[in-house]
Write a structure and sequence with these properties.
binds flavin-adenine dinucleotide; 21 strands; 31% helix; Glycerol-3-phosphate dehydrogenase; alpha+beta; 12 helices; FAD-dep_OxRdtase; 479 residues; Arc Repressor Mutant, subunit A; 4-stranded mixed β-sheet; 8-stranded mixed β-sheet; BFD-like_2Fe2S-bd_dom_sf; D-Amino Acid Oxidase, Chain A, domain 2
Length: 479
């Protein structure tokens, strides 16, 4: 019997798992896909928002500001790529300067530190490629950028090392509550139904479906799609900060930002009435994004675009995050409607989830031996002496597999063998980056595939590109 079963291993579920692993509890994290971070957590802008955007007094405002602080702390503890580069909300007219002032006031009330309103001259110094119509901006130095899937993987790994049981390939299909305990039925044929005293529902765009399995549909999730360009590192230096336009009813609008690894990200748009799981990209939307971004940063060369992608925001029929014990099912905590700034807020949402569980009757006693840290090898950032020692210890660190990102075979093997190891090509890519570069895996992909097959002792045909069913090889053309 588990004390707590968390459903969904995105950034919210992973943060809760890690938070609860500080206590003497029996906890499991259940994920339907073959890896963590397969939902909205792998497809967003990767911004650690400062917190001026959410309305005063909302859960979003409180959790954003707290999460922004915690993300910086946890990124250090868990060896996650994070840069505090600050954000700029740019005004392109005097009218928009009034919006900037409103955001400034709202940010101050939300507790955002060190914000300033700046004018064109200073803005130009900070961002030499800013659009010609820019008249001023709100500068928020506490904002940053993070590796979203790296963060989710690191949180899960740390939770697992501290005793949480992770079930991958385990889709929750039904939940029953009897005599005060839950039985969770899954699509995993190798697993008995899971018994637990409490449930945390962190299933993203499926959180209303999960609640509906055992209680009343207290809310509804309506996915809102956003599409993006990822540009080569040649374009990264065009922006020094996260560059937003003034927000509208549809959200924070199209942004331009460097990524933690030096690429340039441009997007997203906002599209309603889409199917759950529809992450297709379209020419029309990409053109809209391109035109909108032109206003913010001049001279982006879209011939350097290396990838397009789309993510689904878990927009609910309420305006705020839904962070509460279910009214129809006692002992089930809903963490739902976690749209943006959900990535930023997740570490703080986890603290709220812990408090709600305690209020619902869970006893929390701290572990003496909680280990808050996690490290992985970044071969190229080692000194020449450290590199030589590493290669001596394991010659696979002397063989470069991905020439775009300079990733060694040793790092790839490590990514497969870690506590929450990669099972697919994209799983390796999200952990140590082969395939993230200019050639997008054109050269290193087949080599990585061979390494996974060798290390997992499976055939080449069994290695997936990403989620289950994404076959790469289906057989030999010539026998
Ligand atoms: C376009 C876009 C841009 C964004 N930009 C930002 C940003 O810059 N900054 C920011 O702070 N936030 C941003 N967000 C919001 C942020 O990405 C999300 O709030 C966050 O990722 C939500 O995490 P989650 O864990 O709730 O959901 P998810 O990451 O979707 O995780 C839910 C998990 O539940 C699993 N699951 C679902 N059903 C079941 C089931 N039946 N059984 C088992 N598992 C199940 C899914 O497979 C998934 O892994 C953005 C979102 C989008 C879409």
């Amino acid at each position: 019997m588990f004390d707590v079963a968390i459903i969904g291993a995105g950034i919210v579920g992973a943060s809760v798992a890690r938070e609860l692993s500080r206590y003497n509890l029996n906890v499991c994290l259940i994920e339907k896909e073959n890896d963590v971070s397969e939902g909205a957590t792998k497809a967003n802008s990767a911004i650690v928002h400062a917190g001026y955007d959410p309305e005063n007094g909302t859960a979003m405002a409180r959790l954003n500001v707290r999460g922004c602080h915690l993300t910086e702390v946890y990124a250090k503890e868990l060896d996650v790529p994070y840069k505090k580069i600050g954000s700029l909300v740019v005004a392109f007219s005097q009218e928009e300067m009034e919006t900037i002032e409103e955001l400034f006031e709202r940010g101050n009330k939300n507790g955002v530190p060190d914000q300033r309103i700046i004018h064109r001259e200073e803005l130009l110094k900070m961002e030499p490629n800013i659009g010609d119509e820019a008249v001023g901006a709100l500068h928020s130095p506490s904002a940053g950028i993070v590796g979203p899937w790296e963060f989710c993987i690191a949180l899960t790994e740390n939770a697992v090392v501290n005793g949480v049981k992770l079930y991958l390939n385990t889709e929750v299909v039904d939940i029953k509550k009897e005599n005060g305990t839950f039985t969770i039925f899954t699509g995993n044929p190798e697993l008995e139904p899971i018994q637990t005293k409490y449930i945390v529902n962190a299933a993203g765009i499926y959180s209303d479906v999960i609640l509906g399995m055992v209680g009343e549909r207290e809310f509804k999730i309506k996915p809102r799609k956003g599409q993006y360009f990822v540009l080569d590192k040649s374009q990264g230096p065009l922006a020094n900060h996260v560059i937003f336009q003034c927000p509208s009813a549809l959200g924070k609008g199209v942004l331009v930002t460097p990524s933690v690894h030096g690429n340039l990200i441009v997007g997203p748009d906002a599209e309603d009435n889409v199917e759950r799981d529809d992450t297709t990209t379209t020419k029309e939307r990409m053109e809209f994004i391109r035109d909108a971004a032109e206003k913010s940063i001049k001279g982006i060369n879209y011939r350097e675009s290396i990838r397009n992608f789309a993510g689904l925001r878990a927009q609910s029929d309420r305006s705020d995050f839904i962070i509460e014990e279910s009214k129809s099912v006692k002992g089930l905590i809903n963490l739902a409607g976690i749209k943006s700034p959900g990535l930023t807020s997740a570490p703080a949402i986890a603290e709220d989830a812990r408090d709600l569980l305690e209020k619902a009757g869970l006893t929390l006693t701290k572990k003496d031996n909680f280990n808050p840290t996690r490290r992985q090898t970044h071969f190229m950032s080692l000194s020449p002496e450290e590199k030589a020692a590493k290669i001596k210890e394991d010659p696979r660190f002397g063989r470069i597999i991905c020439r775009c990102e300079n990733i060694t075979e040793g790092e790839i093997v490590e990514a497969i063998k870690r506590p929450v190891g990669a099972l697919s090509l994209d799983g390796v890519k999200r952990r140590v980056r082969p395939g993230m570069g200019r050639c997008q895996g054109g050269f290193c992909g087949p080599r990585v595939l061979e390494i996974i097959a060798r290390e997992k002792n499976v055939s080449l045909e069994e290695v997936m590109q990403d989620t289950n069913g994404s076959y790469i090889l289906i057989g030999e053309t010539k026998k």
